[in-house]
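Weekly sync notes, structure subgroup
Attendees: PM, AL, DS (notes)

Item 1: joint prediction request from the bench team. They want all two components modeled as one assembly rather than separately. Inputs as received:
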Amino acid sequence: MLFNPCFIVPAYNHSRAAGGTLAKLAAYGLPVVLIDDGSDAENAGLLRELAAANPLVRLLVLPANVGKGGAVMAGLRSAFEAGFTHGMQVDADGQHDLTVLAEFLAAGRGEPEAMVCGYPVYDESIPMGRKLGRHLTHFWVWVETWSFSIKDSMCGFRLYPLGETCALLDECALPMRMNFDIEILVRLYWHRLPMIWRPVRVTYPADGRSHFKPFLDNVLISWMHTRLVCAMPWNLSRRWLGRAGGHPNPHWSKVKERGSRWGLAFTAWVHRYLGRWLALPLVPLIVTYFFLTGRTARQATRGYLERLFRFTNGQSPRPNIWNTYRVFLAFGFSAHDKLTAWLDPRLITRLDFPGIDLMREARESGRGALIIGGHLGNLEMMRAVAARYGFKGFHAVVHFAHAAKFTGVIKDAAPDSAQDLIHVSNFGPETAMRLREIIDRGECVVIVGDRTSVSENGQTVTADFLGESAQFPRGPFILAAALECPVYLFFCMRHEGGYKVMAEKFADRVLLPRARRTEELAALARRYAQCLEQLCIAHPLQWFNFFDFWNPRHAPAPNEARK
Amino acid sequence: MTPLRQELKSLIISTLGLEAVTPEDITDDAPLFAEGLGLDSIDAIELGVAIRKRYGISIDSEGGDPRRHFASVSSLADFIAAHRTL
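Output from the run, pasted for the record:
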């Protein structure tokens, strides 16, 4: 990215101070866009003279006084049209310490896609009223961004990347007065613009004039915060979602795990700072948002309900929009429980585990075990089970690229729990060696059996599932054979306000002789699918594969999709 | 050709049931996965487990990039020589 900066200097009757400011800027040898924001005749004349005397200064005269925000916007646009890539806003009144400019420009050159923002370091000259107002605004900006990453939103001393900034100016109407500095920063944050922070010393000049009108500007700032808080849920969720554009039916591994990224980060936050029970009422809100915006997931879920309805001859919930929503809702609550299971598994108190002896057997036989689960119910409840019964040595294999966000949340929140996760970005021989090592220690490996992986090159095994043929991964069964250990199926289903753990011994040893490998794999996949079918019938609303399970089209490369 | 490399080639062929391949067909430095022998992730599981079983290798999950050890027969032989316990 290019770096071709200029200075943006708004001035309203500050002609004397502007002279000093321009003289200091001249040291940098960069062009200056000086904006005369409708100054009176005397000051306008002085500004004209200043511009004429300095070949690097371009004067932009606004026909009437529009306010500082309006002047800066006019300057930013004009600079962008003139071909500059970055605009460094410097107030004409000389309140900022200009010796730090070199540092700001160097930071911008180093990271041209980022915005370099100043946060003020005050001396004693700040008026008390301004100080209080600043604290209030800090608070509201935290609320609006759900983050403490904006150190200061009022200091206009910033290096703007002009492309992103002008795109935002075209997109929405920003306020014209002092509140401009705050709103543009919050909105650029929502737009995921990276921000670099640098301190800048601020002095309120004793003889200088401030155009801050305490009553009017405080009312305008309050109104702006009201608007920003109202706009926050939509904009902030767009930020968290990365505004990801989708294409129909991508392979599941290419779909960003929206639930994890958004729901988990959000509920984790509420969990940690407001408490577990307060997070609960938020679940329907989050779920409704996903339901309304996630067309692919909605269609896929409905497709599942339709197949289940046919398969059970009409004995399962009707495939209508309400039941589709209920699946989403169940997923939302399961994400909430998932988090509880990670943060404090002992809080999951209602656990029904008829097959507890199977789990004990798996753990204590000394032969190790492979546990196959699925995206049906809530496999994370195994953590609660393990905590309750004091089981150790269960290692979950996690698709790294997909779950990076999730494990990030978990690592922050429960560093100890994250230790027994095995990250797999690409299942290679070294992964198999590590898993074999676990088995040799007599411990257990937990994987899911209903997600095919990209690295299998489409080598899947076909099995009937709910009356139609679907693709299942071969990996879990090949792994079962290679690990030479007993195989169990585990599913934790939400049931009567708690969880019910369904366990089944799948095989004592899986043998895959090469000659009959294809048939053996098909038979194993069908047995697994049968088990899923039984669970779907018993718990129809807990199918959490939000992609078209029967026709997963492999996703085109991202650049293809954009065409 | 070192005995270990020869042994490895036979192990690869027998583990993966590569019936049409002889040890002489596998070059020491040819990539095992993708192009070269064209092994896939399923083969990777079997090969990884077979090597662990045969040589008692224990790999440190945090240290370095284990993937490169499986690049070719020669890199695999070096890796095994350094880490074998059997």
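Discussion: The mean pLDDT of chain B is 78.
Action: AL to compare against the crosslinking data before next sync.
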